[in-house]
Design a protein that fits this description.
Blueprint: E1 6-10, H1 19-32, E2 37-42, E3 54-56, H2 62-67, E4 76-78, E5 83-86, H3 94-101, H4 105-116, E6 122-127, H5 133-141, E7 144-149, H6 153-170, E8 182-190, H7 194-207, E9 215-223, H8 227-234, H9 253-264
Parallel strand pairs: 1-6, 1-7, 2-5, 2-6, 7-8, 8-9
Antiparallel strand pairs: 3-4, 4-5
This protein binds adenosine-5'-triphosphate and magnesium ion.
């Protein structure tokens, strides 16, 4: 039996909100829970491509995946089981121009991924923090969208203006069989300050307006914590972060990431990992 993958695009019109961190941690957790996962680095700055060590580095990357529809020589294996990667290999941003000049440019990635979706349970796409044709292509390829929002007024306004504006701009893709997926925002890098709390409260009220039916803000809040940076240094997804001193299980970022998965993907079993943790 073949089974279609769920494609999740992590998106934000603002830079530095935590997109790449979210893709690495979400994809790494899903793989460790026993799923076959492909990460796609659709940012010209190849940050995601450097998050995990590679076991087998494919010759090609995103450019060949989109332009030549080459699904064989573009997928690298990371050192983590069942966690694969399409590297970003377009430093000059030529792909952006190429997509613009093709009639089917923005839906090309969607169609290429449809050819390999029986190989993966999840495909998780990272995007750059700026609106443009490559981000459009990644959004068009996804079933659902996930957007980290920093708990400050500038990021919150940018989410309401920029990210939601981008979705409106892409609605016409529905005519090409690429309807824009439901957008789940979540608070990332939450701080224990009154200002952060009041920004989050105002954002939730704004998004709950009846006109915003295809957007929601998740209850799960990801705190600002050094673990998210250290995990990258350790080359592991944050649920496998090794603290310098022992922490209580509910204080480990694993608890937060599991809560995020349960809320976003309620059908996923979250009890068993491939191997013992720490
Ligand atoms: N929950 C968190 N707590 C603390 N630091 C975090 C958290 N999430 C992300 N960071 C840090 O914030 C910085 C920006 O994160 P990241 O690179 O994931 O953002 P991005 O949205 O992908 O940025 P860009 O738009 O440049 O691609 C990184 O240094 C990362 O380690
Ligand atoms: Mg990034």
């Amino acid at each position: 039996m073949t089974c279609k993958s769920i494609k999740i695009c992590v998106v934000s019109s603002k830079g530095g909100t935590g997109k790449t961190t979210t893709v690495a941690n979400l994809a790494g957790l899903l793989a460790d829970l026993g799923h076959r996962v492909l990460m796609i680095d659709a940012d010209v700055q190849p940050s995601l491509s450097a998050c995990f060590a590679l076991q087998a580095r494919a010759e090609g990357g995103l450019a060949e995946l989109i332009i030549a529809a080459d699904c064989e020589r573009t997928i690298s294996a990371t050192v983590h089981p069942d966690l694969e990667l399409v590297r970003s290999n377009d430093p000059k941003g030529d792909l952006r121009t190429w997509i613009l000049h093709q009639v089917d440019g923005r839906v090309r990635l969607k169609h290429v991924l449809e050819r390999i979706e029986d190989r993966y349970d999840f495909i998780v796409l990272d995007t750059q923090g700026a609106i443009g044709p490559l981000q459009d292509a990644a959004v068009a390829a996804a079933d659902l969208l996930l957007s980290p929002i920093s708990p400050d007024i500038i990021s919150s306004r940018e989410f309401l203006r920029g990210t939601l504006g981008m979705l409106e701009h892409l609605r016409p893709l529905a005519r090409y069989d690429a309807p824009v997926g439901h957008l789940y925002g979540f608070i990332n890098k939450m701080q224990r300050t009154n200002d952060a709390r009041s920004v989050v409260q105002a954002l939730r009220q704004e998004v709950f307006a009846p006109s915003r039916g295809d957007i929601s803000i998740l209850d799960t809040v990801v705190p600002e914590a050094v673990a998210y940076r250290e995990a990258v240094t350790q080359g592991v997804p944050v649920h496998r972060w090794r603290p310098a001193r022992p922490v209580a299980p509910d204080a480990h970022p694993r608890a937060t990431m599991l809560a995020l998965v349960r809320e976003l993907l309620p059908h996923v079993q979250t009890e068993r990992f491939r191997s013992d943790l720490n």
